[in-house]
Amino acid sequence: MSRADAVAVVLWIGATLYAIFGGADFGAGLWSLLAGGGERGRRPRALIDWAIGPVWEANHVWLIFVLVVLWTGFSSAFESIFSTLFIPLCLAALGIVLRGSGFAFQHSARRASGRALAATIFGLASVLTPFFMGTVVGAIAGGRVPVGNAAGDPVTSWLNPLSLVIGALFVATCAYLSAVFLVSDARRARAPDLERYFGTRALVSAIVTGALAAAGLVVLRSDARFVFDGLKGDALPLVILSIVCGSAVLVLLRRNARRGARVLAAGAVACVIWAWGVAQHPYLLPQKLTIAAAAAPSATLTSLLVVFVVAVLVVLPSLGLLFTLVQRNLVRETSTPAVQLHDEPGADTLRR
Amino acid sequence: MLATTLQAARSQMAFTLGFHIILASLGVALPALMLIANYRGLRHQDADALKLAQRWSKAVAVTFAVGAVTGTVLSFEFGLLWPAFTGRFGEVFGVLFAIEGLFFFVEAIFIAIYIFGWKHLSPWTHFWSGLPVVIAGLGGAFSVVAVNSWMNQPQGYAPTTGKVTSVEPLKVIFNPAVPYEVPHMILAAYLVTGFLVASTYAVGMLRGRRDRIHRLGLLIPLTVACIATPVQFAVGDTAARAIAKDQPIKFAAMECVQTTSTHVTEYLGGRCTSSGVKGGIGIPGLDSFLVGWSTSTQVVGLDSVPPDDRPPANTMLHWAFDAMVGICTLLIGLGLWFGIGWLRKKDVPQSRWFLRATAASGVLAVVALECGWIVTEVGRQPWIVYNVMRTSDAVTHASGIGVTFAAVVVLYVALAAALIITLRAMSRRWRDADEDAVEGPYDPDSQAPPGALAEGSQ
């Protein structure tokens, strides 16, 4: 494997992590929006708030990671994508701004109206970003991003059947991932009714996602032959594995199985992303720009790989520490209604 | 068409960066103030200091969450506004952003751990969990500012025209502008944050809230800021001299030097015209003296390059520079006032005039920060990469920047309003001694505990 390919693998790892963790968060925003207002949606939303919690920021750093690896490792691809797909990327960024603000202010807004507004913005933005990210991926897979500064069509490059189907597929995938994750969270929270609530939604969104994926294949066949042929060729094992994982999730959900659904759902999504990468190999922008042609000078690629290794060594343990702390303590606290603020003389008892 | 796109793109970049730089400064320095208070609280069993540390950690969380948003926007703008710049040089400076991403990640994770740790970690473990936040803040600041330094002093790549085919990352990272730009920005972050936090407590004291929390809340940040200010003055002075050497046209524009000559007059204020400075206070020979410790030092003038290679908005640039230096001088004065008062009474000066001056210092420090950013950014124009790539060659060929700029202004005004309202609401609740009711992002309190979910009592 060449160094350029290795950096492309790093790029795809970042994209996969963003799709799974960021995607689950986006999906949670969507479910929060669909839960409905007032009393009816209160408990599902409470669960979502609880589950999404303190790791939100970390999940979305993967996007920055993807952008930086792309512009450092494959600068000309970054230039081409961001200039031709100016409109959908602006809209995706808008979604990120609104969502991030919703996150920052949702919990600190005291008045109910403020909270409701923040929550609605949060939900809408959760749909906006994955949808337009999907249209971007559709434009790339469809070979509609030529090399250069805004060299492609600013509108038809992403406003076409393939992009729209993939946009919808992204939204559905986020909803699916999130629902599967929330089933486990509901179990952790010992809320069996919510477990059923999200179980149903996981099933429905799994079927919708599968249908959209099938539709995507049909459109790919007529519109992006190169990628379609790749999916039928080298990437076929990954496609099959994805279908197997997806089907297994359905079975597990039907049987109310306690384990495995989350990992398999994430696996199904990861397989699709890697299938796409394998299918369009050796191209970064299918039939326009190869990985080798777009690659940065070797010293840059080496530095990127070094930073990536350091990141794995430093960030993953930290992230693991955070996840462990959060999960352990939140679970433990169900039985400890009052917690003393440490070491503060005369500390107030914290109502929980 | 391209000219208006360039204008809009530059305005949007200036606006979003000018906004982010305030939040970034808070993100770099506020965790340090928080840890100082935390240390004091633990070391001296000081409940008030601990309370301050806890409050500041919530402010850190909110500003960091908003800063993460405005930072993400900036990374999009590298492609949305300046695709040709990133397309050509992303492979040169990009590694610095990869390093920055690493620091940012660490900072995000440990802020969450620290906030969480208030209730779930032993006191000293909790204190140490905050340290990576401070270190990552410094590392992140280094990486980002090093990119800007590289844009001012590009090196470490070849060839200098056309597609880059070889890169020397260490030469890029440790470019000649790093030694003065990076410390200048990090000190600015500490200075701005210190004065900004101190000013909010000064306002509270002016309104009659002179309890110990307020005095301590003023004392800690003001001490940090007042130590940073004179150091900053010296670093800035070194930076100006380095710029006179490295980027003589930027320096000429800052000082309105039209023709290359010796015995150059230093002007405070005034209007820059092609025939020299109109108005303002002139001190003969001082500019030459400041550049080379002798009035016979030659200073390069704007006329040494064609008009197309000179920075725009000369008067604004000159005023921005003067304002930055002027404010820094005033803040040193405030530091002396504070220091002398402390030596005499071993307490924060309580006079209304001192508190008024401290209350003004926060806004002044932010103005100085923005002025400094204007000097370095506008002063580099018309180049995006100094003497290598013009900003006009870097801008996107996509249309619609006018629309995005308008949208960004509306969004950011709303964001700023929401941030200020949130921080004010937090402080009001703290005053009502309703400590637990203050929830922020990352806060475990903000989440319905599973028990409440099951009972439906939330």
Short description:
The complex is a heterodimer of chains A (352) and B (458). By secondary structure, chain A is mainly alpha-helical.
Explain this structure.
The complex is a heterodimer of chains A (352) and B (458). With 352 residues, chain A is mostly helical. Chain A has a single domain (3-298), classed as Formate dehydrogenase/DMSO reductase fold (Up-down Bundle). In chain A, 78% of the residues lie in helices and 3% in strands. Chain A contains 13 helices and 4 strands. Chain A has a two-stranded antiparallel sheet with strand order 1-2. In chain A, strands 3-4 form a two-stranded antiparallel ribbon. Chain B is globular and about 65 Å long. Chain B has helices at residues 2-43, 47-80, 83-120, 123-152, 169-173, 178-206, 212-246, 248-255, 286-292, 314-345, 352-378, 391-394, 401-431, 450-455; strands at 157-158, 166-167, 266-268, 271-273, 276-278, 281-283, 383-385, 389-390. Chain B is mainly alpha-helical and 458 residues long. In chain B, helix 1 (2-43) packs across helix 11 (352-378), helix 7 packs across helix 10 and helix 10 packs antiparallel against helix 11. Chain B has a domain at 2-237 and 397-455. Chain B has a two-stranded antiparallel ribbon with strand order 1-2. Residues 444-458 of chain B have low confidence and may be disordered. At the A-B interface, helix 2, helix 3, helix 4, helix 5 and helix 13 of A face helix 2, helix 3, helix 4, strand 2 and helix 13 of B.
Task: Please render the helix and strand layout as text.
The complex is a heterodimer of chains A (352) and B (458).
Chain A: H1 3-34, H2 38-52, H3 56-73, H4 75-84, H5 86-106, H6 112-141, H7 161-188, H8 192-223, H9 225-232, H10 236-254, H11 261-280, E1 283-285, E2 289-290, H12 291-294, H13 298-333, E3 338-340, E4 349-351
Antiparallel strand pairs in A: 1-2, 3-4
Helix pairs in contact in A: 1-2, 1-3, 1-6, 1-7, 1-11, 1-13, 3-4, 3-13, 5-6, 6-7, 7-8, 7-11, 8-9, 8-10, 9-11, 10-11
Chain B: H1 2-43, H2 47-80, H3 83-120, H4 123-152, E1 157-158, E2 166-167, H5 169-173, H6 178-206, H7 212-246, H8 248-255, E3 266-268, E4 271-273, E5 276-278, E6 281-283, H9 286-292, H10 314-345, H11 352-378, E7 383-385, E8 389-390, H12 391-394, H13 401-431, H14 450-455
Helix pairs in contact in B: 1-2, 1-4, 1-6, 1-11, 1-13, 2-3, 2-7, 2-13, 3-4, 4-6, 6-7, 6-11, 7-8, 7-10, 10-11
